[in-house]
Specification:
This protein is of the alpha/beta class and 520 residues long. It contains 21 helices and 17 strands. The chain has three domains: 244 residues, 2-enoyl-CoA Hydratase, Chain A, domain 1 (Alpha-Beta Complex), CATH 3.90.226; 202 residues, 2-enoyl-CoA Hydratase, Chain A, domain 1 (Alpha-Beta Complex); 34 residues, no CATH class. Strands 10, 11, 12, 13, 14, 15, 16 and 17 form an eight-stranded mixed β-sheet that branches. It is elongated.
Length: 520
């Protein structure tokens, strides 16, 4: 090697060394003292070992105002590239809080946009790790332009490749809209925050005192706002959760979801176990609550249920699972919370999940035990009509295999909305104790037999009992073909697995249109 070649090699190696800790060790130590990994450490923890290939490591900003021309740090606050996750290609960016507080410059935005474009071109998901103070004020409108160009790609990419956001520090102002558009958002308790305007601005404008955590912490967004899907106690748990979530989802809309190898002997054992467990979960009293998660876990492959938004709108449970190795999405009314009624929040939660599953070819299984929509002025004034219609729209629009089991109650419009035969479900079955009706027997008799009951109050119980026996059962719906079969609870897994496998190649020709107009 000549002296010139040696000099050039040394220069490259020196730049690479600087890129590993561009802001210096003191800033890295400060990050660690907050209980946070660095951007590079996070990428290494997410991806398979030694699989990461970095892009644009030497990019610097172009700002020359406010003395920024003398403050150029290579990488400019974000690490971008691609690698493997469980052997599958992904593209990834991680904002580096040690460099300018992770604030977004136009150069940083271009780095992020580049890997998003590459992800679409190569049919691979995008993982974004957010840890940023927001727009880099020194750059003014150029920083805002950078955000907007990222948002555009989030929208254009939606439904084409999966997009995951991990909030591992602050995410404020315009920065929050990118995670809001992506498919899944994961937060860290006590560490990550999301808000449009911070506590100081709120105090100045409204006089309201609120802490960072109460305003936009993980608990707020996973329990109250529904902005985030999952939260974890620390970064290691969050990264593990991301990997598990990723395992259910295909790389692009043109692919089927991953299928795990499945031992038929194990399948037979799970069927036997499900048959033994499932029949005793629902109480004999139709008004007695139970947790539908118990039914889901009894039906699916062992330890495969992965719940989404587990602490938000718990009257509707959604999540991924596997049935005989196949990835599926579950939507289930949960009678242990608000008797399992549909309301504004649960409708939004369900609609979002159904549309994601449909976009990425993940079959849907719906478990129905719903007494209707939640009544009340606050729900009506909040737009339950419009928001409930979103869940209806999502199910009706979905063209993936759709299977429905009516466990107990299926009343009124909620019966229609919860993936009924009438809106395109492929399989609709009911358990023998299912009640499919406009409303419960008490309410129906009070309307239909009002004059008789008023004339003889003692006849009321007999009238209700007769109505219940005649109409609060699944057989009238079965006679009309609105359900395909009445089955024993012990037969449920067998019906679902066999029908699922029969429908995996389902294709429905869709009308030519730009897009539908979901009631937003």
């Amino acid at each position: 090697m000549t002296s010139l070649e040696s000099s050039k090699t040394s220069r490259l190696l020196k730049k690479r060394e600087i890129a590993l800790a561009p802001a210096g060790q003191a800033k890295i130590d400060a990050q660690h003292e907050k209980g946070k990994l660095t951007a590079r450490e996070r990428i290494e923890a997410v991806l398979d070992k030694d699989s990461f290939i970095e892009i644009d490591a030497f990019v610097v900003h172009t700002c020359v105002d406010f003395g920024m021309q003398d403050k150029k740090i290579i990488g400019d606050g974000v690490i971008t590239g691609f690698g493997k996750l469980d052997g599958r290609l992904v593209y990834i960016f991680a904002q580096d809080f040690t460099v300018f507080g992770g604030s977004l410059s136009y150069a940083m935005a271009q780095k992020i946009c580049k890997i998003m474009d590459m992800a679409v071109a190569n049919g691979a998901p995008v993982i974004g790790i957010n840890d940023s103070g927001g727009a880099r004020i020194h750059e003014g409108v150029s920083s805002l332009a950078g955000y907007a160009e990222i948002f555009l790609r989030n929208v254009k990419t939606s439904g084409v490749i999966p997009q995951f956001s991990l909030i591992m520090g602050p995410c404020a102002g315009g920065a929050v809209y990118s995670p809001a558009i992506t498919d899944f958002t994961i937060m860290i308790d006590q560490t990550s925050h999301m808000f449009i305007t911070g506590p100081q601005v709120i105090k100045a404008v409204t006089g309201e005192d609120v802490t960072f955590d109460a305003l936009g912490g993980a608990n707020t967004h996973t329990q109250k706002s529904g902005v985030a899907d999952l939260s974890y106690a620390n970064e290691s748990q969050a990264l593990y959760g991301l990997r598990k979530l990723f395992s259910y989802i295909p790389a692009t809309q043109s692919q089927k979801p991953p299928k795990l190898d499945y031992n038929q002997d194990a399948h037979a054992e799970i069927e036997r176990s499900a048959a033994e467990k499932i029949g005793g979960i629902i109480p004999d009293n139709p008004n007695q609550p139970y947790d539908v998660r118990e039914i889901i876990t009894a039906l699916v492959d062992e330890q495969s249920f992965f719940e989404i938004k587990p602490r938000y709108a718990e009257n509707l449970i959604v999540g991924f699972a596997r049935m005989a190795g196949h990835s599926v999405g579950f939507v289930a009314n949960n009678p242990s919370v608000l008797a399992g009624v549909l309301d504004i929040n649960s409708s939004l939660k369900g609609a979002r999940f159904v549309r994601f599953c449909d976009a990425f070819n993940i079959p849907l299984i719906t478990l129905v035990d719903v007494p209707g929509f939640l009544p009340g002025a606050s729900q009506e004034h909040g737009g339950i009509i419009k928001h409930g219609a979103k869940l209806l729209y999502a199910f009706a629009e979905a063209s993936v295999p759709k299977l429905t089991v009516i466990l107990r109650k299926a009343y009124g419009g909620a019966y229609c909305v919860m993936n009924s035969k009438h809106i395109g479900a492929d399989l609709n079955v009911a358990w023998p104790g299912a009640e499919i009706a406009v409303m419960g027997a008490d309410g129906a008799c009070n309307i239909i037999f009002r004059s008789q009951i008023e004339a003889d109050l003692g006849a009321r119980d007999g009238i209700i009992q007769d109505y219940t026996e005649r109409f609060s059962n699944p057989y009238i719906a079965a006679e009309r073909g609105y359900i395909d079969a009445v089955i024993l609870p012990s037969e449920t897994r067998t019906y679902l697995v066999r029908t699922l496998e029969a429908c995996l190649n389902k294709e429905i020709p869709l009308p030519k249109r730009k897009h539908g107009n979901i009631p937003l």
